[in-house]
Amino acid sequence: MSSPSRKGDSVPALCPSTRTLIFLMGLVVFSFPVGCSSQDDPKPIDMDKRVVLSPEKTPSKGQNNVLHFAVGAMITPTEGFGYYRRLLDYLEEKMGRDVEYVDRKEYAEVNALLESGYIDAAFVCSGPYVTGHRQFGLELLLAPQAYGAPVYYSYIIVNKDSDIRELEDLRGRTFAFTDPDSNSGRLSPTYILAGMGETPDSFFGSYEFTYAHDKSIEVVARNLVDGAAVDSLIWDYIARKNPELTDRTRIITKSEPYGIPPLVVRPGLPENVKAELKSALLDMAHDPRGREILDGMMIERFIETEDRAYDTIREMQARVAKVESEE
Length: 327
Prior knowledge:
By secondary structure, the protein is of the alpha/beta class. It has twelve helices and 14 strands. Helices cover about 40% and strands about 20% of the residues. The radius of gyration is 20 Å and the shape is globular.
């Protein structure tokens, strides 16, 4: 990572280690879920069904009546995770199988466990789906539809009181990405920079990874960084549920539409299990209990989609890889 320069900033620049410490302290302070009114709070998460993996612990493969499920990407903020747990409980009942939630932080970890067969199904970001499909045949099952279409965008945001008006104004400033493998939170802005003949290292004074889009919104809203790239679905969700947070940010760049983060399954998952999972999800919008869960997640329904919906992401990956190889 390049050292921060803070060009044009009258405040003396902090050394990288000091800036990083302050940034991480901010994440700790503001890592609690964004608040909602009590009527919108999801039911408590059943943590007994969570499988927290370590390098020494992975769920057993080949358990006939257990579906290991990871939430590697959410189209709602962290506060909405309780609805994902309710979704898994719903699937457990409808499929007649135990559904265990596998806890992993990074997209690459989820992909690795899908490839090895220790995870059966997962919500993943669009970028990791494309990578997994190419590398080991990760299978697309369904996609959620939200806000009228199965697409989303990458927003580049700044604090509402910032003097930054366009991407060029972020040169030499501090920036927050989400995950190294995130499409909206890293690939999309990196692709835009590549079109300018720049990379994150050459363009930003410094950058960090927050590993959650809602945290990226928080650190911009609280002026801990100058800008961030975030998932439009998360920003729009918070704008509806907790507008006092997004009201402190401003969108300066909106990307082209991308295929929405999908639900995927591992290669080799038995066809009958895939069929059961697909049927249960497609029927949710027509079931009162399922409809309630979807409403809480701000998902209209699950739909069938095609792999070509993610071709623009493949093109961006190829462009960014070419630029990085020429450095």
